[in-house]
Write a structure and sequence with these properties.
The chain is of the alpha/beta class and 254 residues long. Helices cover 27% and strands 26% of the residues.
Length: 254
Amino acid sequence: MQQTNRINQLSVPTNTVFHGDCVSIMRSLPANSIDLILTDPPYLVRYQDREGRSIQNDSNSDWLVPAFSGAYRVLKQDHLMISFYGWTQVDKFFHAWRSAGFRIVGHLVFRKQYASKSRFLKYQHEQAYLLAKGNPTLPKNPISDVIDVPYSGNKLHPTQKPVAALKPLIEAFTQKNDLILDPFCGSGSTLVAAKILTRNYLGIELDPQYHATANKRLHPDGIRANRRFYSPQKGQASRPQPPFGGALHSSAIL
């Protein structure tokens, strides 16, 4: 059931996944209502996986500036956004972030145990920037800017992030019952991590298939399964890594 928080006398939906364009939907949200934004937008690389799956709006950047301007507006003052990005298009992402008003305060590397691609180098990491609105309070125990991540399998989405890679970020920068927004939520990994950690969540997804997948994952049965999977018992064997060429992602969206 949809819940609401009262902020600035306006109703803020929580624990909800919206189906639609994030630029339009964020316009309907109150300013300064979100505690953390954690998102993996399209990388502008026309990505297509081995099964032919692709990402909506991955071939144009028309949405980039308005989307991050909207994100800045809804984020609370002195709070943070974490955004993955496409390194080949980093100049466009920097322009969008800085135009919106964000300050760059950190860079995160997600280290994989396998190469998703091999050309001039073996590509064995993903990356995201830590972006500030105003002057957030420094954490008492900062996490490392290098995080080892397992392979998600990409079964639910062509660029699916593992929940285990996102939990440390939410734990580090939010408190229980805070509201986490993912405006490009894909199959819902950010939202699943937030719910497991007793945070409120708000997701937006354009593709109807992935919107349905995210809602299914957030059902209590799905959360129980994810909690077991991402909280292994001590001594449990590590999960197998993908063969060479498996991808955590090369494009976007969780």
